[in-house]
């Protein structure tokens, strides 16, 4: 094989690998992204049940109920709308009423939300960015006010 | 020590870094040896001043000097000494200072140990390193000054984020920074070579030890961070595809590609353009990681504080260095002379495949990390790209890497014999099938893919050993000769084999843990018990305990297997009083390579606590494998001797007559 | 001083780092690129030899490798003549030396003076806690008292000392607790009780709670003339809707106060708020006030005018004999849209001038003009 031919062969193999990789990325991206929504957005858009979502907002005061050891119900609010969440598992350390939270899970047909993971902020001065943005949109929280 | 000394040392560092950028570069341009030499002394002095500055800050932390704002915001006098020290880099300002310190240390090491470098290359390397230092010193002094004073000083600090009050903080960031910032040297070498316009096999020889050092530290840093998150966050996960984890993984992939392609370049004078690009990319991705962590554009565990000016400043640094180096690359790369040629099936070919897959994985992680940002900027939609994406893409790209890994070292340079290599791997392949069968038998009806994964991992480990055995010639030459050859093998051969075996070990841990782990969430009262992964855990008692700056609620569990008592596990919910912030102190019991992992949740209204328990089979192999990888890197690094590629002559040798078939040297 | 010496030494070290390598005696030719390359390639050749000798590579392979390396060596030697490394052109060296000598101190010094705080000494906690504390270091003073009180929880004096400091720096919970402890240990007196009441009130955001009220009453029991207790009890009455009681308490307090008492301003404000008469001295708007009013936003000007009107009202309530003042007040309230206040002012003016028919006529005329009714 000529020098040129070899180089061409190597390059075309490389291009093939890259092509496969790019396809893989696009395929995976299409299949696995999860949208972030606030309760008001879900109410306004009429999101279909069964959709996988990240729900963000504040844990409504007085809404947390431990039904038995590990089943928890609470309400996520962004000031504009509320959404009930059920979750089985241990809540994160910094999960508190009146604090920011992100729940990832599926919208149930009855309009409630079944979470399979719940994230709270990582320390007391920090608010998940998505939640902060959603709350700002609803006018519940303003920049510079400190975290609610 | 007066904090002002540290402040002045930092300001002086900026002046020194500025001179270090200009003078040696001018010297290299004009060929003035005196000017070039100034770079070396400046590099040493820079490391001294940044070190002094950092030491002063550490002293302020140790002495709880609350006239320093940074100490007030991140320390507390009741904190144990170790965490007062580590608190120095447990915050934005301090960690940036550590970043620059590592940068300066690497520059000083080049100045000290770069005696074999051509003066011009060395001067340019130091100048580039000086320019990076200048940019980050400006950033520290004007947006994140750790020496800002408070008058009058408060009597107590606000304490460090409790999650960071852990031995992990002492180790993880310094190691990670040694890795991240270590790639600044390979970057500097690449840019210096581009400025000179000449890159040859010798260049790769000079860059390799630095790339290996950075890579080994980065490997350790990532592994350490993973273990830290595993036991400290209490979620039982060891990798979350958090943006910041991704930010460290991207340069790791690029760096791994770099240490391999540099071998090709050193031995065969080929892949030059590509190697230089990788050297630039590895550090660019490190910078990107710094930007992502420090600017707060992405939600992450590691976000300390968000300040828009900081983000813009780092973005400017990012654009300058990445854009500048890539522009220089575009300008100069076409002028580089092409090197040796090789067939697709050859050692070089295998390394090209490895490089392609690794960079593709790096790109996949990059896309997944930045896609949400881009989409939000484009149409405001907020999305998350979660673990499924990364598992799928990185997994699919890494499996062929793992499969091809044992083949690579067995192929000859220039033109390899795939069938021959496969033949030599028959034993490894057989062993892999046995292990896969054992795994399938052991798991009964578990995930179908798990036995295949186990087999693959075993193939990688045994294949790595096969390389060493093969090269020594066991089974083909008399045993004594083989042993003699084994001793004569360069250390880098052992290093490479060890690192490859480490990958296999790590892979084994990952597959075993993800396929076979068991999780149990339960509400337990004192005296109650539950079962996880074949073990029975009984909550013996719940007791409060007091620490120096926290209060614990400790749950003591007894572990039994088949009625036989195996020991106890203590897991705690810890409340840090200064910030009124709870953390989970998970209880872990290691049995061989597997672990039982228990974390406590909230106390339940009806008495008792929520408990989350995991059985994690072979989980420690993930980190042990990473350690072996880094150890392999260190072993290669200790090989002072220069190895050279022995290309197979174009015509097939008639050989094998003498009994010793030609085995490629590395 | 020591600090500046340290700074100079550090600067000197940085300058030396520039100057040292420039000195001519140190001329040691550095490795040229080609030489360094050749060194690497010669090593590679030696390595191939070793491998071949120990049987690690086949002779044919070794030969091919040798050829490749030899080619690299040829190329490198061809290039070796091209670059000539000079040592130290004098002009360049002088420029660099000057930059080092001047640039380093100027840049570092200038930047440090704008960023640093050279006059603030270090303040390690241990040093602040031991020995005689610096009297301006309030935080440490408090901490020392706290440490002392932890050891001697029955030292009432300690609580009494620290309580007002807590209140001043806004640690109201601690202030209230310290005052209660002082009262418990030292017995009640007016100062302690008002201190407690005040802390409780501040904690409740200015509302005089039941506990606070009890404290103020206890203070009055200890000292019937305590002005603070009087004031806050008046405030409590106002908050309970007992305006009359409030007015009575406050007026009595004004009457009992010396003319330069610092709390008079507060009392006048309070009295004006509930519309009670106030006895006081006064002043009209000065030229400066008017000038200031020009440069204000409408809201600010409104507030300023209102303030002046309230001052006028307070003055008139105290010394009611100024008919021009009363007329101005009525007009002013009307302009500000406060019809009822204007009416009140008219009513008060009428009571003041009940015996002066001329004045009464002017009041009535203005009231009609402003549409305030009779």
Automatic annotation (TrEMBL), chain A:
<keyword id="KW-0349">Heme</keyword>
<feature type="topological domain" description="Extracellular">
    <location>
        <begin position="29"/>
        <end position="148"/>
    </location>
</feature>
<keyword id="KW-0201">Cytochrome c-type biogenesis</keyword>
<keyword id="KW-1133">Transmembrane helix</keyword>
<protein>
    <recommendedName>
        <fullName>Cytochrome c-type biogenesis protein CcmE</fullName>
    </recommendedName>
</protein>
<feature type="binding site" description="axial binding residue">
    <location>
        <position position="126"/>
    </location>
    <ligand>
        <name>heme</name>
    </ligand>
</feature>
<comment type="similarity">
    <text>Belongs to the CcmE/CycJ family.</text>
</comment>
<dbReference type="InterPro" id="IPR004329">
    <property type="entry name" value="CcmE"/>
</dbReference>
<dbReference type="Pfam" id="PF03100">
    <property type="entry name" value="CcmE"/>
</dbReference>
<keyword id="KW-0812">Transmembrane</keyword>
<dbReference type="GO" id="GO:0017003">
    <property type="term" value="P:protein-heme linkage"/>
</dbReference>
<dbReference type="GO" id="GO:0017004">
    <property type="term" value="P:cytochrome complex assembly"/>
</dbReference>
<comment type="function">
    <text>Heme chaperone required for the biogenesis of c-type cytochromes. Transiently binds heme delivered by CcmC and transfers the heme to apo-cytochromes in a process facilitated by CcmF and CcmH.</text>
</comment>
<feature type="topological domain" description="Cytoplasmic">
    <location>
        <begin position="1"/>
        <end position="7"/>
    </location>
</feature>
<dbReference type="GO" id="GO:0005886">
    <property type="term" value="C:plasma membrane"/>
</dbReference>
From TrEMBL, chain B:
<protein>
    <submittedName>
        <fullName>Cytochrome c-type biogenesis protein CcmF</fullName>
    </submittedName>
</protein>
<feature type="transmembrane region" description="Helical">
    <location>
        <begin position="352"/>
        <end position="374"/>
    </location>
</feature>
<feature type="transmembrane region" description="Helical">
    <location>
        <begin position="312"/>
        <end position="331"/>
    </location>
</feature>
<feature type="transmembrane region" description="Helical">
    <location>
        <begin position="38"/>
        <end position="62"/>
    </location>
</feature>
<keyword id="KW-0201">Cytochrome c-type biogenesis</keyword>
<feature type="transmembrane region" description="Helical">
    <location>
        <begin position="207"/>
        <end position="229"/>
    </location>
</feature>
<comment type="function">
    <text>Required for the biogenesis of c-type cytochromes. Possible subunit of a heme lyase.</text>
</comment>
<feature type="transmembrane region" description="Helical">
    <location>
        <begin position="96"/>
        <end position="113"/>
    </location>
</feature>
<feature type="transmembrane region" description="Helical">
    <location>
        <begin position="618"/>
        <end position="638"/>
    </location>
</feature>
<dbReference type="Pfam" id="PF01578">
    <property type="entry name" value="Cytochrom_C_asm"/>
</dbReference>
<feature type="transmembrane region" description="Helical">
    <location>
        <begin position="425"/>
        <end position="442"/>
    </location>
</feature>
<feature type="transmembrane region" description="Helical">
    <location>
        <begin position="448"/>
        <end position="469"/>
    </location>
</feature>
<feature type="transmembrane region" description="Helical">
    <location>
        <begin position="125"/>
        <end position="144"/>
    </location>
</feature>
<dbReference type="Pfam" id="PF16327">
    <property type="entry name" value="CcmF_C"/>
</dbReference>
<dbReference type="InterPro" id="IPR003567">
    <property type="entry name" value="Cyt_c_biogenesis"/>
</dbReference>
From TrEMBL, chain C:
<keyword id="KW-0677">Repeat</keyword>
<dbReference type="GO" id="GO:0005886">
    <property type="term" value="C:plasma membrane"/>
</dbReference>
<dbReference type="GO" id="GO:0030313">
    <property type="term" value="C:cell envelope"/>
</dbReference>
<dbReference type="InterPro" id="IPR056413">
    <property type="entry name" value="TPR_CcmH_CycH"/>
</dbReference>
<feature type="domain" description="Cytochrome c-type biogenesis protein H TPR">
    <location>
        <begin position="132"/>
        <end position="262"/>
    </location>
</feature>
<keyword id="KW-0472">Membrane</keyword>
<dbReference type="InterPro" id="IPR051263">
    <property type="entry name" value="C-type_cytochrome_biogenesis"/>
</dbReference>
<keyword id="KW-0201">Cytochrome c-type biogenesis</keyword>
<feature type="transmembrane region" description="Helical">
    <location>
        <begin position="95"/>
        <end position="115"/>
    </location>
</feature>
<protein>
    <submittedName>
        <fullName>Cytochrome c-type biogenesis protein CcmH</fullName>
    </submittedName>
</protein>
<dbReference type="GO" id="GO:0017004">
    <property type="term" value="P:cytochrome complex assembly"/>
</dbReference>
<keyword id="KW-1133">Transmembrane helix</keyword>
<keyword id="KW-0802">TPR repeat</keyword>
<dbReference type="Pfam" id="PF23914">
    <property type="entry name" value="TPR_CcmH_CycH"/>
</dbReference>
<dbReference type="InterPro" id="IPR011990">
    <property type="entry name" value="TPR-like_helical_dom_sf"/>
</dbReference>
